């Protein structure tokens, strides 16, 4: 038997990927720009089994115990493994074990980290070292478009060419260009009731969706300029406007999707007050109730202390900008 393990990071979209132009190939309707994280990671271990065996799909929880993956997780992983088998022509049965360092399915992009880890682990088990372009495509075909961005570190734009929605991602700026921190305020760790994929499907039904598409090119340009100049005020304006608009689209879709909870807004209001008080801090949300609180290194201690005093926050996960996936010696 042989085995390989890969750890891959989650990422937080600053300009959101919301709405698909091709659901089968998982192509977006607009360019997105994200920040790859360093501590919110998924680890995937693949181990070959005897030829007479069948695939096993396991989940390793926070308690360290291995349990069979639940139905939806097993289905998603098994379907993607089949795609990878066809691509690499590798058919030996596998034991597949996955673990996260953060809540799963709660709007913190666990599918992005999980499927990018699985794609690289499978390629490595086959003795392949895929380019980031190929790895991105393999991860994206899982149905998680965000997985296309987790194969690169730093600030990542996908597609790399906004005029070609089928182009691969590119690194817009490396992690050390602007070492921002992300304090993830978990107000509800439970899996969300409406999946991101379903949210993407409904997005185009919002009457506000066409207006958003007209505004995005200028917003993307403004955010790019803010990152290059390390202009936090401009960065915060673009990031928060984008976050609010994504949820406006979700809430006006048919049928509507409500990811926010009262605690979500409580944290958001508090973050805005901290910025009015002079701290370099802003907030964004993906498709879920939990909040990514972004700040500069010098203000991270003060922001962290302020958030820890909020009773609506059940867990505060300190993270920061980081690199992409890597092979690891950790065996699940």
What is shown here, in short?
The chain is α+β, with helices and mostly antiparallel strands and 332 residues long.
What does this structure look like?
With 332 residues, the protein is α+β, with helices and mostly antiparallel strands. The protein folds into 2 domains: 3-175 and 324-328, Ribosomal Protein S5, domain 2; 177-320, Alpha-Beta Plaits (2-Layer Sandwich), CATH 3.30.70.890. The protein has helices spanning 71-88, 110-125, 132-140, 196-203, 209-229, 232-251, 262-276, 300-308, and strands at 3-15, 20-22, 27-28, 32-48, 56-60, 66-68, 94-100, 155-158, 170-173, 181-186, 281-284, 291-295, 315-320, 326-328. Strands 1, 4, 5, 6, 7, 8, 9 and 14 form an 8-stranded mixed beta sheet that branches. Strands 11-12-10-13 form a 4-stranded antiparallel beta sheet. It has a two-stranded antiparallel ribbon with strand order 2-3. A hairpin with a 4-residue loop joins strand 2 and strand 3 (27-28). The longest helix is centred in the middle third of the chain and has 21 residues, at 209-229. The radius of gyration is 19 Å and the shape is globular.
